């Protein structure tokens, strides 16, 4: 296991910093607009961001996944000439796809504004979001090139600055002008500048490869396209499934309810930033194992990461669920507290199926990408059907159920094929123990937070309380092994020596007895 921890350590640390910056920036962004703008305007901004995310996936054409995999694959073989050829062709495609995205949004803006915003006032905003989509397409593709080249530190540092400016520059435009349309214009401008920044670093990496070039087999670009097309289709369906409930809320109810519901989703993403970096790093690392035909390394990495993802995500998600009402009240205002039940529903259901992150990356690394067409298609169908059936009757509670259903459907399909192809490597007894421990923590925090007034200070104290309970359970119930603790400690900077010391004392040795008496029945 030590080889796994060493290979991931530096990349995960910077990836967590990048994703944490995105979460913090987006949370502050929505915090400010929730207090500065009416709920219906917040809803319109949320809908524009949803459209941007969906259309960006459409026009990326799956190339971000394909180029990341094939660069990693050829890098371990030192086929630098093949990498350069792939990069050159993909850069051209990225620019063409970005231009196509802007042109499409410009032409379709009147229809989009009328259908989803129920007003032609938003035509200009839709046109401006087309600029942001074009920039996002290039950011995704250029960023994937850096990840494929194992440039994790560089990628993450760039992404940290991009995340900060992506939210605070548009927000500053809103402060200066007082008009929400300038917020969208600022988003478009910063996305284009960010894409240019990524391109500069990609070009430098390309130039360095030129000095190392040797004669080697070239990868036909059609192979990358064949690999990317299933991911392209699944990404469209998967992203649409993620946002379709918001669009249905806007279509059947109004933008005000969308603004309230979207804020619940923003808070739900608080736990997601803990596991997203793992997914970003898994594809190139597992592609390396696949390239070297290292089956033991592949399966070992799957097992250790399934345990770590559950160990981190489940208690974080259930902690958010326990504090859902007070968090919504303090961060958004009393008008948004009606979303606390939808937030709890989402946090519990997504926690059950968080292993999909690891299993999906494993399947991608062995080039069985057609599976994602099935999983994403069925997830989209589930969300559409349940959204249409439940939202008119149950409002945002129905939206939360529909949104959560796609996690269950996606997991069922991915898990089936993960078992078929030998990717699945769940440690079921450990996962059960993590869940029982997290539920104990949830119950304690939920009961205590209902006894005291709402305040930011109390939220901070409840978080400390929940973390303390869970850390004690890690020690008491032997939730983490030495190899997993080595992985976690490897991404914590040395300057936090006290934290490292505390965590080191929480681990257990697998040779000292596998399970305590309380959980012996699980064996």
Describe this structure in words.
Helix 1 runs antiparallel to helix 10 and helix 16 runs antiparallel to helix 17. With 523 residues, the chain is mainly α. The two termini are 23 Å apart. The N terminus and C terminus are likely disordered. The radius of gyration is 23 Å and the shape is globular. Helix content is 81%, strand content 0%.
Defining traits:
mainly alpha; disordered C terminus; 523 residues; globular; 19 helices; disordered N terminus; single chain
Sum up the overall morphology in one term: globular
Q: Segments where pLDDT lies below 50 for 5+ residues?
A: 1-11, 509-523
> Can you write the helix and strand succession as a string?
HHHHHHHHHHHHHHHHHHH
Find the count of extended strands (DSSP E, 2+ residues): 0
The main β sheet shows up as: none
How would you sum up this structure in a few lines?
By secondary structure, this protein is mainly alpha-helical. It has helices at 2-36, 39-60, 63-76, 80-116, 123-148, 152-177, 180-210, 221-252, 255-268, 276-291, 295-322, 324-331, 340-352, 356-365, 371-420, 428-449, 456-476, 482-490, 497-504.
List the helices and strands and how they pair.
Layout: H1 2-36, H2 39-60, H3 63-76, H4 80-116, H5 123-148, H6 152-177, H7 180-210, H8 221-252, H9 255-268, H10 276-291, H11 295-322, H12 324-331, H13 340-352, H14 356-365, H15 371-420, H16 428-449, H17 456-476, H18 482-490, H19 497-504
Helix pairs in contact: 1-6, 1-9, 1-10, 1-18, 2-4, 2-5, 2-8, 2-9, 3-4, 3-5, 3-8, 3-10, 4-5, 4-8, 5-7, 6-7, 8-9, 8-15, 9-13, 10-11, 10-14, 11-13, 11-16, 13-15, 14-15, 16-17
